[in-house]
Design goal:
The complex is a heterodimer of chains A (405) and B (532). Chain A contains 14 helices and eight strands. Chain A is an alpha/beta fold and 405 residues long. In chain A, the strands form three sheets. A four-stranded antiparallel β-sheet of chain A has the order 3-4-2-7. Chain A has a two-stranded parallel sheet with strand order 1-8. Chain B is elongated, with a radius of gyration of 35 Å. Classes of the chains: A alpha/beta (405), B alpha+beta (532).
């Protein structure tokens, strides 16, 4: 057998005080970071507009910023994203700005304003006389335009528009009308027509989002409730399967994971979005697995080995499941690292939560959830003072007894 | 042991999954974030629908009174649910009552005496109007989307109160025009002009450029039956000025009276909108144009929540059921306006809550990135399993592959949508599903170390691990449930893939993997060692 960590006998409970201290420090640090740094909330939560543009060559960020400033959009945030060779720019307008009445106006100003500002005057003049921008127009608009080509049937025009779009999908934006020549279905007439009636704009719109302020606060509220709800769900499930106190221990560990991960998330200035909330919910659902596996084992050992103290039982359970904990967490971790590294800009913050959270989660299973069990047991032992042996008290609290009384 | 049915079940499930997954490009629907397109959420303002309905009712009552030649001074809205008819011929109160009963029998109607009537919209009517407004808006938007020629659009109600509308327009990258066309109320009204006292040249009179100017012409207060409506016109110097038209509140013809509308050209080749009226409206229009010969009538359009005058032509002929609107339109604007008039008006204010557009090139890049991350993730997991658990690891690899197949099959069956977070969910599912295999294998190894036979180690491994696997999956499903109830769009897609993947993983890791062990261990063969 090729194996690691077999028959380990680490004294996890022996070092629990150090671990708990480290955890406490980390949690406090995370909370401090959250308050000091604040969360970088995405437009889904604040409302606003964001636009992602791709340029043919290195974009002039300062120029874009000052152009937007001149157009009255001085509170815009302009950053480059992705690889430097992607030549992509992210623009965010109106962080939390605009009350509800101004909603629609804010949207109009932001979206149209940004695009208008960045489009040189000569393009606007061209557009005014019906010349279309092949880098931003939709397929239906291009198809409609192509109907003007002599000798092109409606079906052929549609086909050609679809092929032009297909090409644009591959290369993201045209830099010159010459690139149209080898598109399937292009006829000399159509090319000549497009040379007169079409142009290639200075950028392509990669994505554009507008979120009204009303929906933003609603989503933030919903996100909070979903996270609290899933924590409560975990508590109830473990309560049913084990005991209330075990459920509480697991939930404390989960809250610990979430807070530390959130702190790191804030520290790295990653943007909070809907998929990130999804990642936190997933983390909660995943992180509890480790805890459940160890709890299962603790219960199993308590049933069979009546002479051991709870501390020993917990230690044994953790050691027995250690290789499983490391292998599964490690494998899932590998997977999320792959997403973090290769999954692209959108999934990056999502993957970040899981990359950090899985590590913290595995640690907390061993050093938070299990020690709390031991702590509670010793507490109830002290309270019950003289009532019977320690082993029995442990077993009473461990076995699934519907009611203590 | 009659275990023949187990492999049969597995083969049947595989067959079904393959059936629902092939061909993938048809079976697996890509979300807008992957294929490109526009996603819009609209909020229907139901309060404004009530106002709108009151406006319509006002016109309907006015028209009914006029049709019966009952004279009245004005119909005035008091608040959003109350209006008053003033100065109706007191001698014909019975007829007025009859009209009111016929038109709005379920409203509270009170005769205030001397030809004044107070009409109150009861709460249940209000509720009905609010609900109907959402449905009408939904249908109208759907109608307009269809006419815009978008392929495979989705238009449906959303939200707890059901007063939101979700619109998905695949392939629409330049949503501005689509949005403008979709959400404009597009209500058209023809209104007679209330000329100020002293005006004699009716056909050439033009209103002042300020409200105060109009008020002054009427000697301080405009008549009860009249309201002011703005018209934007280009002045000679190129600047835009606003004219304030005093127009009768009760419209002669209103949007619902249109039978058809289309773009046409006037004699100078300028774009205009032609329309046809229904029979009733045609009769009314005929009477009104007869009455207003040589005077101007205003065409008022409600667009972007604003009522404004499009144009105010002088009536030169009696018009029956066909008419034209000039308004210095561009070709596109004329086309859009005709489309809106044709598809019916939206009876409420509509606000954009959310609008997202993903260009197809970004979608393409997302697919590429998502797929490469997925493939790398799979390879890492499978490579590790095969090396670490050897032949049993291969067993897990088969189970995981099957897991992905089942997940895709289920998505095909439910016509679920694969989004970018959904791809992440798919990858993550593999990471989580492998947990079940690891739990079982570690347990088997443990039992083997305790000196048990292969047979009993495998039995115990699966048996003991099962409860734990169930617990683990239930907890994750609880989280997925909250994810689903919280999420919209892409996040929901993530919750769906995660849930299906976990359910599939219980089947593959516990049932299928077990059967593969049985292939080796079954039939009473004595197996001395296990490659694990």
């Amino acid at each position: 057998m090729f194996q690691v960590l077999i028959d380990t006998n680490y004294d996890f409970m022996g070092t629990r005080r150090i671990a708990l201290t480290i955890s406490a420090v980390l949690v406090v640090a995370a909370i401090v970071v959250l308050f000091a740094h604040g969360l970088n909330l995405g437009i889904e939560f604040t409302g606003g507009t964001e636009i992602q543009l791709k340029f043919p060559h290195s974009p002039d960020v300062a120029g874009i910023r000052s152009a937007l400033g001149r157009a009255g959009l001085e509170n815009s945030e302009v950053t480059r994203i992705g690889n430097p060779t992607d030549n992509e720019v992210y623009i965010r307008v109106g962080r939390g700005a605009g009350d509800e009445g101004e909603n629609e106006k804010a949207r109009d100003i932001a979206v149209k304003g940004v695009l208008d500002t960045l489009r040189p005057e000569e393009f606007k003049d061209l557009e005014a006389v019906g010349v279309i921008d092949l880098n931003t127009k939709s397929q239906s608009d291009i198809a409609a335009k192509l109907l003007g080509v002599p000798g092109l049937t409606e079906a052929q025009a549609g086909e050609l528009a679809s092929n032009i779009l297909e090409r644009r999908r591959e290369i993201a934006l045209f830099t010159s009308l010459d690139e149209l020549a080898d598109i399937p279905g292009m006829t000399p007439d159509a090319l000549a027509f497009l040379r007169k009636q079409a142009t290639v704009g200075p950028f392509a719109l990669r994505s554009q989002s507008y979120i009204g302020p009303a929906i933003g606060s609603e989503l933030l509220e919903k996100a909070t409730w979903a996270i609290l709800g899933s924590l409560a769900g975990m508590l109830v499930y473990i309560w049913i399967r084990f005991q209330f106190q075990w459920g509480l221990a697991a939930v404390i560990a989960l809250a610990h994971d979430s807070v530390i991960t959130l702190g790191l998330f804030a520290l790295f200035g990653k943007e909070m979005s809907l998929p990130v909330v999804a990642a936190f919910l997933t983390l909660i659902g995943y992180s509890v697995n480790d805890t459940v596996v160890i709890f299962d084992r603790i219960r199993e050992i308590l049933r069979t080995k009546s002479t051991m103290s709870l501390t020993e039982v917990v230690n044994l359970a953790i050691n027995r499941t250690l290789s499983r904990t490391i292998i599964t967490s490690g494998l899932t971790w590998l997977v999320v690292v792959a997403v973090y590294l290769f999954g692209g800009e959108t999934l990056n913050p999502f993957a970040f939560v899981l990359v950090v959270g899985i590590v913290v989660g595995s640690y907390s299973t061993i050093y938070i959830a299990s020690p709390i069990l031991v702590f509670w047991q010793s507490l109830s032992k002290r309270r019950a003072a003289s009532s019977g042996s320690t082993g029995q008290a442990a077993r009473r609290s461990a076995k699934k007894v519907p009611s203590a009384r | 042991m009659a275990t023949w049915w187990k492999p049969a079940v597995i083969l049947a499930v595989i067959g079904l999954a393959v059936f629902f997954v092939i061909p993938p490009e048809e079976r697996i629907h890509l979300g807008l974030d992957l294929r490109g397109g526009t996603h819009i959420v609209l909020q229907v303002d139901t309060d404004s629908a009530v106002e709108y309905e009151l406006n319509l009712t006002q016109t309907r009552l006015g028209q009914a009174l006029t049709d019966r030649r009952i004279s009245y001074a004005s119909i005035v809205p008091i608040d959003p649910t109350v209006m008053e008819i003033r100065g109706a011929d007191p001698g014909r109160a019975a007829e007025v009552r009859e009209i009111l009963d016929l038109q709005i029998g379920n409203w509270a109607i009170r005769d205030l005496g001397s030809g004044n009537w107070r009409i109150v919209m009861p709460p249940e009517v209000r509720q009905y109007i609010a609900n109907a407004a959402v449905t009408t808006t939904l249908n109208t938007v759907r109608n307009r989307v269809d006419q815009l020629g978008v392929r495979e659009p989705i238009v449906q109600k959303q939200g707890l109160l059901g007063d939101r509308i979700l619109i998905q327009l695949p392939g629409v990258e330049d949503p501005e025009r689509a949005v403008d066309v979709m959400i404009d109320q597009g209500l058209l009204e023809w209104k007679a002009v209330t000329y100020p006292p002293g005006v004699t040249d009716f056909s050439r009179w033009s209103p002042p450029t300020s409200r105060e100017g109009v008020l002054a012409m009427f000697g301080g207060a405009i008549p009860d039956d009249t309201d002011l409506y703005p018209e934007q016109v280009n002045a000679e110097d190129g600047s835009v000025i606003t004219l304030w038209w005093p127009l009768k509140r009760v419209s002669v013809v209103i949007g619902n009276d249109l039978r058809n509308a289309f773009r046409s050209e006037d004699q100078f080749g300028q774009p205009q909108v032609s329309f046809e009226l229904t029979k009733d409206a045609g009769n009314r229009f005929e009477a009104a144009t007869q009455e207003n010969l040589g005077r101007r009538m205003a065409i008022v359009l409600t667009a972007r929540n604003l009522k404004s005058v499009v144009s105010a032509p002088t009536i030169e002929d009696v018009i029956r059921d066909q008419g034209r609107i000039h308004g210095g339109f561009t070709l596109e604007r004329a086309e859009d306006l005709a489309l809106q008039l044709r598809s019916g008006a939206i009876p409420a204010k509509v606000e954009i809550l959310e609008e997202r557009t993903v260009g197809p090139s970004l979608g393409q890049d997302s697919i590429r990135a998502g797929v490469s991350a997925a493939v790398l993730g799979f390879l890492a997991v499978m490579g590790f399993m095969a090396i670490y658990y050897r032949l049993s690891g291969l067993n897990a690899v088969v189970a995981l592959g099957l897991n992905v197949l089942l997940l895709l099959g289920a998505m095909g069956y439910f016509a679920a949508t694969l989004t970018l977070p959904g791809i992440a969910g798919l990858i993550l599912t593999v990471g989580m599903a492998v947990d079940s295999n690891v739990l079982i294998f570690e347990r088997i190894r443990e039992e083997l170390r305790l000196g048990k036979t292969v047979r009993s180690a495998v039995d115990q491994g699966f048996g003991r691990a099962f409860g734990t696997i169930l617990d683990c999956n239930v907890t994750t499903l609880v989280a997925a449930f909250f994810l689903f109830s919280y999420g919209t769009g892409p996040v929901k897609g993530f919750a769906v893939t995660l849930t299906i993947g976990l359910l599939a993983s219980i089947f593959t890791a516990v049932f299928v993997s077990r059967q593969m062990f049985e292939l080796v261990l079954g039939r009473g063969r004595r197996v001395e060692s296990l490659s694990i």
